[in-house]
Design brief:
mainly alpha; 3 domains; two-stranded antiparallel ribbon
Amino acid sequence: MWKTLVKKFNSTDSIVSLVLGLAVVLVVGMTIVNYVKSKTQPAASIEKAASAETSVSTSLPAKHTVKAGESLWTIAQIYYKSGYNWVDIRDTNTLVNPDLIEAGQTLTIPDVPTKTVGTPAISAASISEKPKDTSYTVVKGDDLWNIAIREYGTGYKWVNIATANKLADPGIIHPGNVLVMP
């Protein structure tokens, strides 16, 4: 039996295959072990780490000492629960380059309202079912999206324009073309 094993591993291909197979087994094994470890990590230690970041006094104005890895965005999230207030921190501290803050640097956190970004509402009045005109003459620089916005108030009607005009390639329209507005 020993002699047959030695014969099988005499070629270089067999040894390379064996080494590559062992490497694959090790990588898969380590991946599984790390996955299991991450799933069994106590939730308390994760919550403790998260609360340590946000356990900053929220009475403003305040002083904040920058820690390694922090940015104005992350600091604004701690104090305002919104990263959009990073601009207020930059302006209060007259920072020339807000990307260059250093660990140990002390920043003043101003008492300003929290900034949020909302999504704009699209009203039914802004979208018209009927076009402004029954036809449109293409000018240089036009595309169906912009024509649809101009005629209907929404770019999504470009499909209707392309279909009504039987355009083989809606991306190609030429100045002077007269398009029917459905």
